[in-house]
Write a structure and sequence with these properties.
22 helices, Growth Hormone, Chain: A
Amino acid sequence: MSTHAAHAPPHAPRGIWKVIGAASAGTLIEWYDFYIFGSLATVIAVHFFPKDHPTAAFLSTLAVFATGFVVRPFGAIVFGRLGDLVGRKYTFLVTLVLMGGSTFLIGLLPGYDVIGVLAPVLLVALRLIQGLALGGEYGGAATYVAEHSPDARRGFYTSFIQTTATLGLFVSLGIILLCRQQMGKEVFEDWGWRIPFLLSIFLVLISYYIRVRMEESPLFAQAKSAGKLSKNPLKESFLKKANLKLVLLALFGATAGQGVVWYTGQFYALFFLQRVAKVEFVTASLIVAAALVLGTPFFVFFGSLSDRIGRKPIILAGCLLAAVFYVPIYQGMVHFAAPLNATMLVALVLLQVLFVTMVYGPIAAFLVELFPTRIRYTSMSLPYHIGNGVFGGLTPFIATSLVEKTGNNYAGLAYPISIAALTFLVGAFLVKERRQVRLGDD
């Protein structure tokens, strides 16, 4: 038997597509639930905040949107620990139910005109539950797929999980546009915006049915049977100097830059088209949706490429390209918005999405390779969700605030550019490539 075969997880690659499909279906739905809020930020602002100051209402909505990101690291700690103690499968069943339930309740929540200040308070509470749930979801799904994958193809197989975030955004935009077109603008903005939130409960039930029939990760099961599980994953992950160093390197040398590139290239691009470039809501959404469809296959391309040349060079190249080209790209977006040149706008957003695929396609494989099985869920979840939840999730709010404060349409880009550049420097000099590590050896 070859060395590779000896270390490949059981049933890999046989059955791997069933594993990927089950993990991805739930993850896609959780991202959909999380992102319909951001996709509808301009509409939600009208219903849950006073209407006498539209800009303040929009910024308040972005702040509420951001709370879901800020709390994600706490979800990573809570559910990461649970995943390392109890198992991957049952942990992300819990996160799925929490996410679906809170999203459904947002669709039922009365607005500011009905219950006053209690409306934004309850909105924040539900958004916090969403963030906690997502904080536990991604690490479980990525770890689950990685621990089923052959060592030499880990980047390729885990890259399918990476497509779910963009596909979740795409599905949220698609359902929103469909509802808006069927109902008309006035009805949709009055009450029809609730439909995408309410529909999520059916998607969650289907995904729960798929996931509950899955088996536990083979590497976790082996570690459990051998008595190698950590008794205190939090202590081992964050209080042991060697592992804490890896967590910090993962954050500042990969996920912080990856996070800002992700949210700039997709969410901030959407807000910028609507609010700065003055592109109509439906048109802006269609432009971003078209770019997402064209760009999504590149998650798999760069994930597969990382199996051959490494995770580090692709992730850092994406950060560097974003830092260098964001300003001219956004200048081009303003230029081609009036008069409208939709083809060029799709191309410019697509270019940003390609940067996203470079930083995001290999990131799951990069993170799981840093940490041993007994603390993998906990250790990888925290830097991922700080990078994406805090650094990335705050991008639309910080960037929009900088534009409003300075009056400079491009001032908001200073934030993602600086974080992406920092990640490039830290990653280039301090992070080691680990694509050839064997997960079964720990």
